[in-house]
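Issue 218. Parser rejects a valid record. Input:
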Amino acid sequence: MFGGLAKRRICLISFATVACVLVDASLMSLEKAAAAEPAPAATLTGDWGGLRTKLHDMGIDITGGFKVEGVGNVYGELPKHWAQAGEFDVGATLDTQKLWGLAGGVLQTTVTIREGEPPPGDLLQQSAEVYGRGNIARLTEFWYRQKLFNDKLTIKFGRIPQGDFDNSSCDFMNLTFCGAPGGNIVGNYWYNWPIAQWAGWARYDFGDYDVMAGVYETNPRDLDLQFSPGWFCCATGAMGHFEIGWTPQFGPQKLVGHYQAGVWDDTSGGPDVLIGANGQPFSLTGLQPLHRANRFGFYVQGQQQITGSATYDRDSGWKNNHGLNVFFDFVQADRATSTLDNQVNAGLTYVGASPQRPNDAIGLAVGRTQYNSRAADSILLATPGVQVPQAEYPIEAFYSFQATRWWDVRPDFQYVIHPGGYTKIGNEALLGIRTDVKF
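Output the parser choked on:
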């Protein structure tokens, strides 16, 4: 297996494209490789003959990747089918210190292209998080970040996704466990990746604590299915965020944790899910829903390393290097305007599944997404006796196989209790696979 010359064929398959890359790798025995060979490339395309290193030394880092998620429901009452979706991204990070002598500055540009079809399941939270917001190219990031006052103050402005607040890791495929939970339950006005908005925020770090506040433009045109560097019209309001974070270290091993709590308020407002303009249920009167002047909510999150080691950077986020990590999220939206009331999840990941596979990981998570009872009442008033959604309970497990430093393959299993929140629909099992390639 480790001797001689081997050729491996890696195929990234999607309904839109089929890209097959033939990789020639000369593999020696493990002992000889460890003693005599340099570390394997961290990206599929390598160092570009030294160009990548030269650009990095100048202050320019080029990144890219392709993520594909395929999932099929294999058990339950809902129609069974297989669906696939993927995302290609390419970005450039400019270090202003190296380029222009301006210390503490970073300029980031990222373009994403999504493709694929809706995942199966008809769930409150979809079973493949990479799908959504249109099969098009988007300018997902175009922002500038500056450190000031010995790096205690950070400011950031430009085109930014709202996931800088309520930030959560995205190791799982089910949307219950991936991305900013606020955007998962009120995605009609809180826009997660790959949607960007005109925004600005500031964060002040003091010891183990940080305080962060920001404002994002609320503009429905950001959801248009076309590429745009950003709109200069049609905003309906602004969304304010405020968040407090704590990053402690516990015990002699200095096990890192990160905990945060935040609130948001959207001044564009939205329609009430039950009451009409005359104060009566609109499903009975036929009038338009009452317009609420604000939409708001709050969240609490935490991650804690239990064994091994992890790092947390306030700009780049959490990384479990080795060992057991546990996490939880809770988010509550206002019940006047939100169809989905609240969401809670908890889980764990473990990196280093065996001594022979130190970079492989396993994950397990459970969650609940609650359907707003006021929205359910509106459905019942319109159609008496019909079954209405209540709550959906997903369970997910994965194994992450680190094939190379730039290629990860992740078989996935999901079991959903009360799919779509319907108690009279049988539970559903889904099998999936996710693969990530760094270019």
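Fixed in the parser; the record now loads. The longest strand covers residues 317-333.
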